[in-house]
Amino acid sequence: MSGQKRRPPIVGRYLRQEVELASRNSGMPLEALRYDLTPAGLHYLLIHFDIPEVDAFAWRLRVGGLVSRELSLSLDELRRMRARTVRVTLECAGNGRGQASPRYPSMPWLEEGVSTAEWTGVPLSAVLNEAGLEKSARDIVFHGADRGFDGGIEHTYSRSLKVPDAMREEVLLVYAMNGAPLLPQHGAPLRLVVPGWYGMASVKWLERIEVIDTAFDGVQQALSYHFRQAAGEKGVPCTKIRVNSLMVPPGIPDFFGRRRTVEAGDVEIFGRAWSGDGDVKRVEFAVDGAWQDATLDAPAGPYAWRGWRSRWRAAVGAHELRCRATDASGAVQPLEPPWDVTGFGNNGAQRVEVVVR
Fold this sequence. Notes:
Blueprint: H1 16-24, E1 61-65, E2 71-73, H2 75-79, E3 84-91, E4 114-123, H3 124-131, E5 139-150, E6 153-162, H4 163-166, E7 172-177, E8 180-181, E9 191-193, E10 206-212, H5 219-223, E11 226-227, E12 236-237, E13 244-247, E14 252-253, E15 260-262, E16 265-274, E17 280-287, E18 290-293, E19 295-296, E20 306-314, E21 317-327, E22 350-356
Parallel strand pairs: 1-10, 15-22
Antiparallel strand pairs: 1-2, 3-4, 4-7, 5-6, 5-10, 7-8, 7-9, 11-12, 13-16, 14-15, 16-20, 17-18, 17-21, 19-20, 21-22
């Protein structure tokens, strides 16, 4: 697929279009890091086009292409299949984009494009096994009901997984979130959830699964969601979530500037850390550049964030707090945002400015 017109990076004030995107999408308030499971109303949202109107009673999931038997499954039929619940931290691939300069004009996330929920549904592998994949199957394509233009190209939001990735037992066709039916904004009546991968892979408002023998070349797969160091290069596809961490900003905020005010004395700092490439093994916390190891909570699951905490003896004055995580692969959060043309994968260590009184 060709013809996409990519927007150039910009410096300066946010564009009207960026403000509109920030108004209709929403991030998780950082104080919600205190919840092991993010309540559905606080879970971050990135909606590419419109929330589609879907009649759950008439809706059916169609499975076709290179399969032995085409399927057309109702929501009730899916609910009668063997269910699985997985706790998953999802993060938008563009999380942190708004902190970069120059930045790519898109959803201007700062740090709030991450959340954790328990997702319940049918393992995708069970449905694919029922359909029977042909030997020539290469990509499993997931077509959502939301449709619009991106880069001047009209399309439905569609993504694909290679067969081995799609057949992982933890990849789910989801109809419930935190024990309740999916809400419209979270992809009702059915969505895909791909644990460990950035959120773009977890297609919402799923209507159709198509099995093909070539590499899927849809806009959101072939042209978007690639790490790129220079404009015009093909880049590397975004897949697994890079190691990351955040803290709950301590004290109380200024309404407009969000600068924090903290009382002098002992302050407990709490946060979460996560990675799509192995368990979090270490979190460090720093005050004015002096780093120390934080205490880790017990793991909450292979695909869920991990709590961490540290104590700070807050002295009067202005201070900068930071945190960074290390995962089982040995990857460490960088202190500065890694450069990316379209602002993907920013896992630079968080900064929180505080005044202690």
